Amino acid sequence: MKKIYLLPFALLAFTNCKKDFLNQENPNAVSIKNYFKSENDVLLAINGAYQALRSGNTLGETAALYNEERSDNTGRDDNQSAAGEPFQFNDFSLLPSNTYLKTHWVAMYEGINRCNIILSNIDDVNFSVVENKERYKSEVKFIRALIYFHLVRKWGDIPLSTTMLVSKDDVDKLAFRQKEEVIYTQIVQDLKEALTSNLPNTQWEYQVGRVSKTAINALLGQVYLTMGAGLSLNKGENFKQAETFLATAYQMRTFGKLSEIPYADVFDVSKKMTNKELILQIQYIQGDQNYKSSIAANNQAKGEKFISKKESTGVGGNVKGDLVKDYETKDLRKDFSIKFASDPQVNDYYITKFRDTSATAGVNGWGGNDWILMRHADVMLLLAEAKMNLGKDVEAIILLNEVRERAGLPSYADSRKDATYSANYPTLKDAILHERRVETSI
C-alpha cells in the first residue's frame, strides 16, 4: 500500500512540472517571509506590536486583574461580576486550570513574538534613512523589554525567546524556564541598545503613545531598582544604576516643579495629548466602538453619573478599605480618585480618577481615557527610593516633598511630628512606599 501512495509523488518530483506545484501558498494569507518589503511594512508591524499592549490580557486598562487586584488596593466584590476564576487572583487561590491566567501568559508571549518577528526581518528591508531603521529597532526592543519585565516580576524564572518562532519545534526548543537573572540581563541589554538610536527625549517630539528616551531611561531605572531590591547579587551597583537612569529620565522633563501640573489634569481626557507629566500611555479613542476605553464606564457605580454616562448596576472597580485608610486626611488625591457610592445596595468605594462624561463617549461608555504606563511623579518616587537605598536621604526627601506638595500635604519633616504619621510610616522607606501607593495605585 505504501508504494501505491508514494509513487505518484516520487514521479512528480522528476517531471517537468513547476517546482511549486505541490507547495502552493494560501492566496488569502501573507507569509512572514513575503511580508517585509518596505519601510511602511515595518511601520505597520511595529504598530501591531504597540497594539498588543492595548489588550487587557497584556498591559491594557483591564490588566489590573493581574496586579492591583492581587493587592490590598482593589478587588471585585460587586453584584455584576461573575463568581469564579477572576476572584482567584484576589484571594490567592489560583488554580493551574485558571483560563484567565493562561490567556495572560499566552498574550504576553504573543506580544514578545511580534517583536521578535520584526527584529528578525527588519535588516532585510532597505531604508532610505538608516537612522529610522535603528529608531524602529529601539521601539521594538523597548516593548519586548517592557513585557518581559512584567512577566519576570510575576513568575520569576520564565522561558526566554529573542528569535522568531514559526513552528512548534521552535517553541519546544525554548519551552523551559530560564533563571530570572538571565531574563533581567536580556531586559537590560534591550533597553541599553534602545538608547543608542536617534529617538527623541519625549513622546511630544515624536508621537504621543510611542517610545521616547525618557521612557527607556525610566524603565531601565525601574528595572535596576527592582533588581537591587529583589536579587541577592550586586545590590549596591544595581541601586547606583537605578539612580543614574531614573535621574536622567527626571532631568528630561519639560516642566519645572510637579506642582505646575494639577493632579486632576493627569487624568483629564481633554489634556491627554498635551500633559507634560505623561511619559508613555496606551492610547484609546473616544467614541470608537473598537478602540474606546471602558475604564470610566467599568468603574461607574450603580446610581452614579459622576464619571460616565453609562448606567451601571454594580460597584464597578471597588477600592479596599486598606487603601482608603492609607490616604492622609488632607490629601487632595483622595476625593479625586475614590468616592463612596450613594446607592445603598453598593455600600462600597469605587474608583473615580478615570472620567469621561462627554457626549462622544455617551451612554455606551465609549471613553477616551488613555492607560498611563509611565509618568514623572512615579519616576520621582522611584528615584527617591533609589537614593534612599544609597544613603542619600536628604536628596530622597526633596523628591518626596515635591510629590506631597502637589497633593496639598505637609513636608516629610513636618509630617513626622504627627504621631499617627510616624506610627504608620516609621522609616523613610515606609514613607516613600506609602506615597507611591496613594499617588499611583488604581
Task: Describe how the helices and strands are arranged.
Blueprint lengths: L1 H11 L19 H4 L3 H16 L19 E2 L9 H6 L8 H23 L8 H26 L12 H7 L5 H15 L18 H18 L4 H17 L11 H4 L11 E5 L12 H5 L18 E2 L1 H6 L5 H6 E3 L8 E3 L19 E5 H14 L3 H14 L5 H4 L3 H6 L3 H13 L2
Antiparallel strand pairs: 1-3, 2-6, 3-5, 4-5
Helix pairs in contact: 3-5, 3-6, 5-6, 6-8, 8-9, 9-10, 9-15, 10-15, 15-16, 15-19, 16-19
Characterise the protein shown here.
The structure is a single chain. The protein has 442 residues and is mainly alpha-helical. It is 49% helix and 5% strand. The chain contains 19 helices and six strands. It has helices spanning 2-12, 32-35, 39-54, 85-90, 99-121, 130-155, 168-174, 180-194, 213-230, 235-251, 263-266, 295-299, 321-326, 332-337, 376-389, 393-406, 412-415, 419-424, 428-440; strands at 74-75, 278-282, 318-319, 338-340, 349-351, 371-375. The strands form two sheets. It has a four-stranded antiparallel β-sheet. Strand 4 (338-340) and strand 5 form a beta hairpin. Helix 9 packs antiparallel against helix 10 and helix 9 (213-230) packs parallel to helix 15. The longest helix has 26 residues, at 130-155. It starts with a helix and ends with a helix. Mean pLDDT is 91; it is low at 1-19 and 78-82.
Short characterization:
The protein is mainly alpha-helical and 442 residues long.
Mean pLDDT over the full residue set: 91
Distance between the termini: 67 Å
Biggest beta-sheet profile? 4 strands, antiparallel
Point out poorly predicted stretches: 1-19, 78-82
- Supply Rg: 25 Å
Number of helices: 19
Instruction: Kindly state the percentage of residues in helix.
Output: 40-55%
Shape type: globular
Structural class: mainly alpha
Number of strands: 6
How much of the sequence lies in strands comes to under 5%
Order of SSEs: HHHEHHHHHHHHEHEHHEEEHHHHH
Please list the strands of the largest sheet in the order they lie side by side. Answer: 1-3-5-4
